[in-house]
Amino acid sequence: MKIHRFPLWRGASHRSLASGVCAIALASATFSSSQTPDVNAVTVKVQTFTPQLAAYGQVEPLQLVPLSAAETGVVEGLRVVPGAHVRAGQPLATLGGPTMQTLLMQTQAEVRSARSALNAAQQSLAIEREQLPSHLTTRQAIQQAESAAAQAQTVYDSAQSKLSSVLQLMTLAAPVSGIVIATNSANGQLVSAGQPVVTLQPAAGLWLRANYYGSDLNSIHPGMTGTFMPSDGGAPIRVRICSISGNLAAGGGESVFLCSVRNSSAWINGEAGEVTIDLPKRNFAIVPTRALVLSQGKWWVLVHNRKGDHAQQVEPGVAQGWNTFIKSGLAPGTQVIVNNAYLLFHSNIAEQFQIPD
How much is the pLDDT for 310? Predict the structure, then answer.
């Protein structure tokens, strides 16, 4: 093996070489001293914070009311269109056709017949009462006439009620005030019993539906309040949880239904935006965000005490300004290093990661 020898600089003595080495060492020491970080620690304090859960929400009808045909007939006089506002009891269409006309004529004939029988029974009763002073009749005959008149009145009332029912069947009136969502039939169309003709959305029948995911679902319950921020830039609306579906969706989320706290007319059907629910207030430790260090998928802080500095794993929460709330891992009064926390945390990185031989 050939060994290469490197001569000393020409004109350099052992003393000058030693002086150069000392100068280099001094310069190195001076450089290391200038790179020593200014370690500052802050005391961990506790602050009250209201956690929030955010999700996408959309306004939808609380329920839809279909106006269906009670009997088979032909739709007539339908003039409403989707979007029209109607009031309770307002006629929207009628049912005609041979079937309904036959039913109407039958009930009208029954009413006429019952009316004639009632008139005859009442006249017979009047005659019997006029003959009683002359002893041309008996009290028993009068009682029989009264019974016949009462029975005829019952038959007539029943026929009248049946006629009113038929007229109601022929008239399709709005059961509640609301907005026409869809017209399921057209004029001249033959519909069967139970077939929808018009679909209504009741007034003040809108609510907000949002799906929430995660481990905080157990903390959601009816009565909690929050805010709905429409995506179109509208004013925020205060909301309250009305009910929870209780059934998890395929993605593990749960549907939460919210109502407007003040006025449900503040939103419209189909409107969407972000919904935030206010969870119960809690006390969290708060530290400057620059004190947090991310390493190997976990968050750490450098805790300073009498024994020195050591890493402490924490679970950060929501950031607020330049600070971050800590869910767990820190106790109040703990000293946490803020300045150059990342550099100090990785100061021994050479010992952890060495180049293999």
Answer: 86
Please choose, from the candidates 279, 271, 278, the residue with its C-alpha nearest in 3D space to the C-alpha of residue 57: 271
Distance CA 303, CA 332 (A): 12
More confident residue, 116 or 268: 116
Residue 236 has φ and ψ, to the nearest 5°, of -65, 150
C-alpha closest to that of 305 among 335, 333, 285: 335
pLDDT digits (tens, 9 = 90+) for 244-296: 887 776 677 788 899 888 765 667 888 899 999 988 888 889 999 999 999 88
HEC letters along the chain: CCCCCCCCCCCCCHHHHHHHHHHHHHHHHHHHHHCCCCCCEEECEEEEECCEEEEEEEEEECCCEEEECCCCEEEECCCCCCCCEECCCCEEEEEECHHHHHHHHHHHHHHHHHHHHHHHHHHHHHHHHHHCCCCCCCHHHHHHHHHHHHHHHHHHHHHHHHHHHHHHHHEEECCCCEEEEEECCCCCCEECCCCEEEEEEECCCEEEEEEECCHHHHHCCCCCEEEEEECCCCCCEEEEEEEEEEEECCCCCEEEEEEECCCHHHCCCCCEEEEEEECCCEEEEEEEHHHCEEECCEEEEEEEECCEEEEEEEEEEEEECCEEEEEECCCCCCEEECCCHHHHHCCCHHHHCCCCC
Rounded to whole angstroms, how far apart are CA atoms 223 and 206? 17
- Residue 355: pLDDT band (50, 70, 90) is low
Select from 75, 78, 100 the least CA-distant residue to 91.
Answer: 78
Per-residue pLDDT reduced to its tens digit, 10-56? 333 333 333 333 333 333 333 333 333 334 788 888 888 888 888 89
Indicate the residue type of 282. R
